[in-house]
Amino acid sequence: MNNKLRVGIVGGTGMVGQRFITLLDNHPFFEVTVIAASKSSAGKTYEEAVNNRWKMSTPIPEAIKSLIVKDAAHVEEVAAEADFVFCAVDMKKEEIKALEEAYAKAETPVVSNNSAHRWTPDVPMVIPEINDGHLAIIASQRKRLGTTRGFIAVKPNCSIQSYVPMLSALMEFEPTTVVASTYQAISGAGKTFKEWPEMIDNVIPYIGGEEEKSEQEPLRIWGTIENDEIVKAQAPVITTQCIRVPVTDGHLATVFVSFKKKPSKEQILEAWKNYQGKPQTLNLPSAPKQFITYFEEDNRPQTNMDRDLENGMGISVGRLREDSLYDYKFVGLSHNTLRGAAGGAVLIAELLKEEGYLTHK
Question: Active site residue: 117, 134, 242, 251, which one?
Answer without folding.
Answer: 251
